Amino acid sequence: MGYFPFFIDIAGKKGLIVGGGRIAAHKIEKLSTFGARLTVVAPQIERELKDNPALACLERAFLESDLQECFFVVAASDDRKLNHRVSMLCRERGILVNAVDEKEDCGFLFPALVKEGKLTVGICTEGASPRTAALLRSRIASELPGRTEEIMDYLADLRGPAKERITEDGKRARFLREMAELCMAENRIPDAAETDARMAFYAGEGECAEKETGQVTLVGAGCGPYDLITLRGLAAVRNAEVLVYDDLLDERLLEHAAESCEKIYVGKRMGRHSKKQEEINALLTEKAAEGRRVVRLKGGDPFVFGRGGEEMLALREAGARTGEVPGLTSAIAVLAAAGIPVTHRGLARSFHVVSARTGEGTDGLPEQLGELAKLNGTLIFLMGFHRIGELAQKLVEYGKPADTPAAAVHGGFDGNVECVRGTLSDIAQRVKASGMTPPAIFVVGAAAGLKLTDY
After folding, report:
1. Is 115 noted as a catalytic residue in this protein?
2. 189 with 154: CB under 8 angstroms?
3. What's the CA angle centered on 138, arms 416 and 123, to 5 degrees?
4. Which one of 66, 105, 246, 301 is the catalytic residue?
5. Which residues pair with 296 in a beta bridge?
6. CB neighbours (10 Å) of residue 44?
């Protein structure tokens, strides 16, 4: 058999559903958003169908005359013989027919559907594996932006003005393509001013013809394995023309970028800096000025001790358009992978994320350490692996009980997590004995004594 995925307009056309039970209701649910005139015929019809004002219900046995003027028929009764008979009658009359669970009696098959406004995706395995079709449907649906329906309406309305204003076919096609990529990657609809500016550029109007303004999207890659990035972040990577990335992210993410994408490494690690922050800011500004789609990919969440704010301020001062996609911060996610919740009723009602690398205090430790020691919540120290002993000692000096649970947690790109547990009195010795290497998170508080996950 050869099932070609035609998309046929069924709005206003008569469709007959033979059967009034659960299966029929399922088929009707799939059809209901496409505007067909549906009639249900069966000796018994479920109440939810009879109460649906959009359906014509005939609570009686099927008659051959019910097939008059039908564009398509779905045989969805519990009687296989009746379904087969309906199928044969439809084939004789050239009517499209689907008989549930009997592929040989089907002139068309129901696909697994993803429907978001004007966007429709149908998946069919020719009956080989409906479960596979359902799994693929779920994957596709999960990757669509939350505003897909609005985006489709916006893009549809854009075609007319673009045709009138951008006369050159190639430029108009590129404009429409880039607007679609922007909307889907960033899950947003450009406002009137941005739409007009981009259209003016492609139309070659006035000063807009000289140079297109680029855009920079700051994307959090999450922490640990590459599949912890958000769907929106992954879409931005796929649509990037320039990808500026650093350490603390799974480099398998780079495989999702287009082959034509320019990839620039600007990693920074303690003791060996590839580029200074000012150089990175200048690089991002330069690439944006070229009118390109730039993605700045950073580990964890860019706004949690990631210096993302500094980069965004520099870009905005230079007049570049900016956007941000949050990521899973290691301060929460790596601990969770080790079974440590940052809050837990009865143990910790707050959590505090602190950078352990600061020159503000007299000893280089966080200057508010005394205040933090008095809190009952969870204390989370980032970038403090080499200072665990000093931090633990100071917290005890400031009044934190020496037997307070503490842990050091290191997360890998393979999804594995290494966790060393102890108390403030012995955590430094335990970490040293374990051979753990940085980076790692130092966590202190009653919740640090929990282990709520097995893998």
Report:
1. no
2. yes
3. 135
4. 246
5. 218, 244
6. 10
